[in-house]
Amino acid sequence: MQQEHICFEVKGLTKVYGHGSAEVRALRGVDARIYDGEIIVLLGPSGSGKSTLLNILGGLDSATDGHVLYHGQDLTTMSEKELTSYRRNNIGFVFQNYNLMPGLTAEENVALVTEIAANPLSAPEALDMVGLGDRIRHFPSELSGGEQQRVAIARAIAKRPSVLFCDEPTGALDSKTSLKVLNALNTVVEELGTTMLMVTHHRGIAPMADRVLNFRDGTIEKEVVNEARVQPEDIHL
Amino acid sequence: MRVSRLITLLTPLDRKLVRDLGRMWGQVLAVSLVIGCGVAIYVMMHGTLASLQDTLTAYYNRYAMADAWAPARRAPLQVVDHLGEIQGVRLVEGRISVAGILDMPDEAEPVRAKVISIPDIRSMRINRLYLKKGRLPERGTEEVVIADDFAEAYDLQIGDRISATLYGVKRSLKVSGVALAPEFIYAIAPGEMIPDARRYAIMWMGYSALAHAYDMDGAFNEAVFLLERGASVPDVLDQIDLQLDRYGGVGAYHREDQLSDEFLQSELTQLRTLGGLLPPIFLGVAAFLLNMVVTRIVEQEREQIGLIKAFGYRPSTIVWHYLRFAGMIVLIGVLGGWYVGYRMGGGLAAIYQDFYKFPILLFDPGQSIYIRAGLFALIAGVLGVVLAVRKTISLRPAVAMAPPAPTDYSKIGHFASHARWMDQGLRLIVRHIARWPGRSALTCLGVSMGMAIMIGAQSGKDAIDRMIDMQFELVSREDITVAFTEKQDPVILNELMAMDGVVRVEPFLASSATIRLGYRERHQGITGVVQEADLNVLIDQFDHAVNPAPRGLTLSESLAGALQANLGDYVTVDFRDGLRRTIDMPVLKIVPTYLGTPAYMDLGAMMDVLQEGKRVSGAYLMVDANKQDQLYSKLKEMPTVAAVSTKASARRSMTKSMDETMGTMTFFNTLFASLIAVGVVFSGARISFYERRREIASLRVLGFTVAEVNVVLLGELALLTFLALPLGAFLGYQLALYIHANLSSELFRVPTMVEHDTFAFAATVIVIASVLSAAVIARQVAKLNLVEALKTRE
Fold first, then answer.
1. What does the DSSP assignment read for B447-499?
2. Which of A234, B318, B640, B666 has the fewest CB atoms within 10 Å, counting from its CB?
3. Crossing angle of the two packed helices B437-469 and B756-783, in degrees rounded to 10
4. ipTM for the complex shown
5. Residue B312 and residue B306: Cα distance in Å, rounded?
6. Handedness of CA A122, A128, A130, A134 (dihedral sign)
């Protein structure tokens, strides 16, 4: 797959937690290139470094060594303020445990983002996209896990981010619900042309991606390029 | 042994305890601080109280403080023996007690003196002196022993001479000694409210010399008594009055009506009141804070609690664990509080010792006060913990271990959903408060209480200031009060009026009396005053000037209260002056007063009653300020003038003395109250931060700036603080009402008065505390590790 526009250029990225005997090398000099509009799945056992990479690319964590260029801008030299603005304008996140505000309804959770974004979808639009147009007045406590995750997706994409990061988005869900969530993700990414990086344990999700990066011990052990993306309804979990 | 080594020796739960304490040291400290304040204030106040009481008792016993006093006009010394035969009297001494005027070199105003005789040959047996320096006067000489505070005020040394006018004759008295006396711990000049050693001197002179000066050879005009244990005081006093009646007795009185003792007791009562009021509030707030902290920990450790229960630990073990956690916090607070309370109590006691002129004062609160303070703190702690742990402990292990569902906000309905103008941040704030109304209310209440204590603590001073203002601006409008040695023909008023510098003169007539209603009786001065007075004015409850009832009695509220007299009641008055008549008189007016328990009559009506002809006892003067000094010297030299007092210096010394005692206490209480406010606000903010770390992190991930997140997080604190301000002002005012009601005594009535400044100060402290807490929290928000925070569960 050839694409002109490089979204992320990762060079010699290293992340070390702790000191001395407690030192953990989460990333050991990772190199990678991610293009605009790609769907990337990051696979690997726990502690292999995939979430760490995601967090650094998302501006949630800092690197110990190496560089990450986002459309040519170096994230590793950005201040906390610049990183906040980077997240605010370009990035959407979806986590395993939803992280919704329990005190706000579905619509209001999405509005949280649309209020600070430059050119957002409206909250009902975003919720429609993930198939929750009829549940916008519900509080998180009144929604199922899958529904909560879809609200989280709507919230993440409502600002029309250029990149969407998903860390185990289906980790807490059964397979049927997982498919719904993956479907929602696929729909919004295709409709908005968003680049998506998804960390997962599920090998079954891999066919959804353009490329699959297999992690082991803080490095990319293997890269698999899929010929074509498979639609979520055609994959088996 | 290293700490880490120690930790390995502990049980796992103990280790958790130590680490929890270290991890949350900020909050541990905040709660300990509040507990410490409560304990310190308890130890300080009760310790001071106990020490003062013990010292007073010891002082009274050692120096044979009299049980009763019986002033008379002039009685032969043989009568002393008759008085000694009264049943219930253990010991009696006759003495001469007279008023004089001193001319102190660097004081323009005349100084009033009370001169008391001491036996020439044998030693004093009642109201003995503690001789600090020098010796007693030699027989027949004009030597005097002077009170310590007076010696200090004028830096008088042994051998110095004092120029005095005694009974109209100028004399030069030589200081032979400096002493303290138990009956003049509070040496207050007649008509004054507080001691002022520069303007009122107590001195003792040999009997023969004093008798000679006052033409009292072979006679006495005051008897002092020690009574048998268990003697019936009213009966003894009646017998004394009966014996002294024909010698001009003006009514014997018991120690509890003796001015010095009465003031001391009312001071002790005030201490007791504040000591009983403030510590429970502090400890209540501490319990609330502990509850907040422990609730937070327990909620966070829900899963662990479930796990420990699943292992087979009993709920009581778990409760015990958290109790020990709270116990450690309480212990830190109690130890700190003990120490600080001990130090401050010592300081306060030293101030009192200086103020009261006790020969000794040891600050020894006694163990029981420490134990009680500690126990109260512990109870507060246990209460806070048990309430916090109860709910989680009762959960089944499996339920406790499962992550809690998202907080259910649907309970509060779609509160704030339709307010389109609200942004999501404001909506979060409002819903969070509405979802936890109890906790929000408690936070608000905690902050309010901090503010209320500050207001209450400061308002005591406001009220006293107000009382002083009222007394000296509305009631006593004169510049100088002159008292004559004997009652004078009103012609003397013209003489006074003619003096250079005198602008206005208003006479008064005074008589000692006993006023009786039913079985209640009071030995009481009655003052005859003019209608339409300009200088010494009676006021009504709206502070408007009123006239004394033209016939009958006008009583102060405090006196009417003491006698339980209502308007229209007839009281029996035994006049001790003039023809010493006994008359039934109606109470025709009751007026509020700030000081003492005065009783008034119309001047003319009183002259009629006393049947001495036209006579006045003294006059109030308004004078030209520029000529005041010359006027003093002239007044001092008038043989008919017994005493001259000026309003300005009375006011000065009253303010000074109030600042000394009330000021110190107010300072400490305000300090502690401020600490409480800070403790509550800070703990509230920190707990809110910890509980909502996940939400904060989520917002940050969504691209909210630190400032935007702070608005959501701290907005709630700001809103609750904002709500707490009016509530705090209201509670503070209520507290002030209560404190003032308890500060009032028969000696003075404290008006309820809270200055705007006091409200403003309290509110400012709260706001500053909030801003500082917010700043600390804002820093933590900025430093928050987003990845970590997102991993923690709700």
1. HHHHHHHHHHHHHHHHHHHHHHHIIIIIIB--SEEEEEEEEE-THHHHHHHHS
2. A234
3. 150
4. 0.82
5. 10
6. positive
Q: What is the mean pLDDT of chain B?
A: 85
Q: Flag whether residue B401 sits within 8 Å of chain A, measured between CB atoms.
A: no
Tens digit of each residue's pLDDT (9 = 90 or more) over A50-74: 989 999 999 888 899 999 999 999 9
Interface check for B317 against chain A (CB to CB < 8 A): the answer is no
Q: Is B698 on the interface with A (CB under 8 A)?
A: yes
| Secondary structure letter of residue B412 according to DSSP | G
User: For B431, which residue in chain A has the nearest alpha carbon?
Assistant: A103
| CB within 8 Å: A89 and B787 | no
- Across the strands, what pairs with A32? A10
Q: What is d(CA B732, CA B170) in angstroms, rounded to the nearest whole number?
A: 56
- Distance between CA atoms of B479 and B201, rounded to whole angstroms? 21
* Percent of residues in chain B assigned helix, strand, coil, to nearest 5: 55, 20, 25
List the single residue in B427, B786, B794 with the smallest CB-CB distance to A108: B427
B192 phi, psi to nearest 5 deg = -100, 175
CA gap B588, B571 in Å, rounded: 11
Confidence of residue B7 (pLDDT cuts 50, 70, 90): low
Query: Locate tokens 């709260």: which residue?
Result: B766
Distance CA B560, CA B504 (A): 32
Which ranges of A26-134 would DSSP assign to H, the alpha helix?
50-57, 80-90, 106-114, 123-129
Determine the length of chain A: 237
- The pLDDT assigned to B712 comes to 84
Phi, psi of B610, deg, nearest 5: -70, -25
Q: Where are the extended beta strands (E) located within B109-199?
A: 111-118, 130-134, 143-147, 161-166, 169-180
Q: What is the DSSP letter of A22?
A: G
In this complex, the residue of A89, A99, A112 whose CB is nearest that of residue B694 is A99
- Distance, CA of B147 to CA of B177 (rounded, Å): 9
Q: Could you give the angle at the alpha carbon of B748 between the alpha carbons of B743 and B754, nearest 5°? A: 55
The two three-digit tokens of residue B472, written as one number = 């000296």
Which among B668, B527, B637 is positioned nearest to B591, based on CA atoms? Answer: B527
Q: Looking at the complex, report in whole angstroms how far the Cα of residue A157 sits from the nearest Cα belonging to chain B.
A: 11
Residues of chain B found within 8 Å of residue A155, distances taken between Cβ atoms: 702
Rounded to whole angstroms, the Cα distance separating B499 from B94 reads 40
Instruction: Tell me if B408 and A139 make a contact (CB, 8 A cut-off).
Output: yes
Short-list B110, B228, B93, B86, CA closest to B163 = B110
Chain A residues near residue B409 by CB distance under 8 angstroms: 102-104, 139-141
CA-to-CA distance for A57 and A65, rounded, in angstroms?
Answer: 13
Burial B297-336 (b: 16+ CB within 10 A, else e): bbbebbeebbebbeeebebeebbbbbbebbbbbbbbbbeb
Q: Using DSSP, state whether A133 is helix, strand or coil.
A: coil
Q: Which amino acid is at B669?
A: N
pLDDT computed for residue A3 by the predictor: 46
Distance CA B547, CA B137 (A): 49
For residue A86, what are its two tokens? 């980077």
The 3-state secondary structure of B624-657 reads CHHHHHHHHHHHHHCCCEEEEEEHHHHHHHHHHH
For residue range B294-346, list pLDDT tens digits in order. Answer: 777 777 777 777 777 777 777 787 788 888 888 888 899 999 999 998 888 88
Instruction: Judge whether B703 is closer than 8 Å to chain A, CB to CB.
Output: yes
Count of CB atoms situated within 10 Å of the CB of B420? 5
Q: Which of helix, strand or coil describes residue B148?
A: helix
Place of tokens 């310190």: B40
